Amino acid sequence: MKKLMVGMALTATLATAVTPGFGSIGGNQGKAYAATVTYKVTASKLNVRSGAGTTYGIIGSVAKGQTLSVMSKSGSWYKINYNGRTGYVSSDYVQASGTTTPPAESTTYTVTASTLNVRSGAGTSYASIGSVTKGQKLSVVSKSGSWYKINYNGRTGYVSSDYVQASATTSPKLVVDSFKTLGNAQQVILVTADNYDTKSAKIRTFEKADGKWKQVLTANGVLGQKGFALSKKEGDMESPTGKYTIGTAFGRYANPGTKLPYRKITANDVWVDDSKSSLYNTWQQKPANGRWTSAENMDIPAYDYGFVINYNESRTPGKGSAIFFHVGTNYTAGCTATSKEQVVSILKWLNPEKNPVIIQSPVSELDKY
User: Fold this and answer.
1) Can you say whether the dihedral through the CA atoms of 333, 336, 337, 338 is positive or negative?
2) Largest CA distance in the chain
3) Which residues pair with 107 in a beta bridge?
4) CB 112: neighbour CB atoms within 10 A?
5) What number of other Cβ atoms are within 10 A of residue 64's Cβ?
6) Is 131 in contact with 116 (CB distance < 8 Å)?
7) How many other β-carbons are positioned within 10 Å of the β-carbon of residue 204?
């Protein structure tokens, strides 16, 4: 068994008017929304997902009546703080009570009038307490009718929304945005390490929707005992670098909900690692009957769940075999591994219709992709 591994309560209400980092007039902008807004779950049980959509993996759940720590709203989904992690819940099953809902993330508010009065209340009948000029960036707290409530030199002020332009700022660039070799892939699993010699890895998943990449999941993982391979060889205890398609999903239990072709492991299942066998780097069943002299047992805890990384599909003798993404937390003999929870989450997320690929690389060589 050469790859066997060693091994909300959401209590906060929105009680601040301005998100940390939100600038004053003319400063850099962040996110803000009105205080005293509470968000409570109305469904008996509501799934918390890793992204804003039902295609994303479930990372937990919240119960009816729980108060959610909402960060922002994206379409019909609330972005929440879930046990210290970022999660998403459908707004159809969350009741918001208060003066406003959270605005879209990273919105910039810019004055369009040559001079715009800042008033003490939301209306022209209120006294002017100052003014802002064209092009200035406003620290908007909330919107009430046709008026923006702003932070004006440490005071609360109001400006007419008719003379303020709100626009979403450019989202931070993701590493996959610079990749040139993705072709028609709309899902990417990115496995990176600080260098070739480390067995510790960072695993990130990305999905493309409406022409834009979004990050879905981040997890810690492990590689082969000797890290990444410059040129993989059978038995070298190194994980191959490169870009590969995703093969069959597998496990010792029933399909956990993946859309990939799924094969349940039996006690007789093996993966042939005999370079001299015509069945090298294929999934077979015992007994060998002279067809191979060496094969890896598949019925082990490391393979409770996983999927085949389509490495060495030409089955070149000695180039390496049985390269999987599977369960584990210490090191592998050439595979990539992470916790069972994360493996299952990724399996549920993967969709063959989105042509998923996995990229494995030291950080310094990501420009190859």
Assistant:
1) positive
2) 94
3) 168
4) 11
5) 12
6) yes
7) 19
The DSSP code sequence of 115-162 is: EEEEESSSSTTSPEEEEEETTPBP-EEEEETTEEEEEETTEEEEEEGG
In contact, 354 and 311? CB cutoff 8 Å: no
Rounded average pLDDT over 46-53: 88
Amino acid code (one letter) for 66: Q
Backbone angles phi, psi at 334, to 5 degrees: 150, -5
Q: CA–CA separation, 68 vs 342, rounded Å?
A: 24
Q: Name the residue among 175, 123, 115, 182 with its Cα closest to residue 149.
A: 123
Q: Alpha carbon of 179 to those of 176, 243, 301: distances in Å?
A: 5, 11, 35
3-state secondary structure of 192: strand
Torsions phi, psi for 118 (to 5 deg): -105, 120
Rg of the chain taking only CA atoms, in angstroms: 26
Angle at 13 between CA 10 and CA 15, to 5 degrees: 150
Q: 190 — alpha (psi -120 to 50), left (phi > 0) or beta?
A: beta
Q: Across-strand partners of 191?
A: 203, 360
Tell me how many helices (H) and strands (E) the chain has: 1, 28
Amino acid occupying residue 165: Q
| Residue with token string 């609360």 | 156
**366 three-class SS:** helix
Q: Residue 91 corresponds to which tokens in the numbers above?
A: 């707004």
Q: How far apart are the first and last CA of the chain?
A: 33
What are the pLDDT digits (tens) for 54-89? 888 899 999 988 988 888 887 778 888 888 788 889
Name which of 356, 255, 273, 268 is nearest 312 in CA terms: 273
The dihedrals phi and psi of 106, each to the nearest 5 degrees, come to: 50, 55
C-alpha 328/C-alpha 65 separation (Å) is 37
**Alpha carbon distance 5, 336 (integer Å):** 11
pLDDT in tens, 104-134: 445 789 999 999 999 999 999 999 999 999 9
Quick one: which H or E segment has residue 74? strand 70-74
Highest mean pLDDT among 4-8, 213-217, 284-288: 284-288
pTM for this one?
Answer: 0.59
> Given the DSSP bridges, would you call strands 262-264 and 242-251 parallel, antiparallel or unpaired?
parallel
